[in-house]
Specification:
The protein is of the alpha+beta class and 182 residues long. 27% of the residues lie in helices and 24% in strands. It has 5 helices and 7 strands; from the N terminus they run H-E-E-H-E-E-E-E-E-H-H-H. The strands form 2 sheets. A 5-stranded antiparallel β-sheet has the order 1-2-3-6-7. The relative contact order is 0.20.
């Protein structure tokens, strides 16, 4: 049975919890992944971490449609060798290179978009749905999404990546979110 989770909003203490590694990818983890994907798609998101729905597992999902992957006007994949959706269990970034600055939003911060500096390319090692270790090399928007979702697994939020000026500019929206989730 497919379930759509409620996405936790900024101010919910569970968003600050560090994820617990998954011992083994089993049917329970696969069901969690299925439900995370449904929740992400229903919310029109590009990524979702288990932490964002109050689950402790170190699991996140990412799906970047071709038309969002590279802003060239045509649906071209910037990372053609990475199959979507990307499911990461116990992910760990093993390499970072370069820098990019781009606009980020977050399902836990609806209506808030800020420029964030991230590595331009990353290598991430994780378990796949068959409980096998894999490594993916990503660049551009996918690299940004991986770093964003792994932040969630460490209890790091979009607000933590904002500059002081960005926090002031978003203060009203942040206060409203926090107040609604206490």
């Amino acid at each position: 049975m497919t379930v759509t989770y409620d996405v936790l909003m900024y101010g919910d203490r569970l968003l600050r919890r560090k994820a617990t590694p998954v011992v083994k990818v089993d049917d329970e983890v696969r069901a969690l992944v299925h439900n995370l994907l449904k929740t992400m798609y229903d919310a029109d998101g590009l990524g979702l971490a288990a932490a964002q729905v109050g689950r402790p597992e170190a699991v996140c999902v990412i799906d970047i449609p071709p038309m969002r992957d590279k802003e060239t006007g045509t649906p071209i994949r910037e990372n053609p060798d990475v199959r979507m959706p990307l499911v990461l269990v116990n992910p760990m970034i093993t390499e970072r290179d370069g820098a990019q600055v781009g606009s980020e939003g977050c399902l836990s911060f609806p209506g808030i978009y800020v420029s964030v500096k991230r590595a331009d390319t990353v290598a991430v090692t994780f378990l796949n749905m068959e409980n096998e270790s894999q490594t993916v090399h990503a660049t551009g928007l996918l690299a940004r999404a991986i770093q964003h979702e792994l932040d969630h697994l460490d209890g790091v939020l979009l607000v933590d990546r904002m500059s002081a000026v960005q926090k002031v500019a978003q203060a009203g929206k942040l206060k409203k979110l926090r107040k609604g989730n206490r």
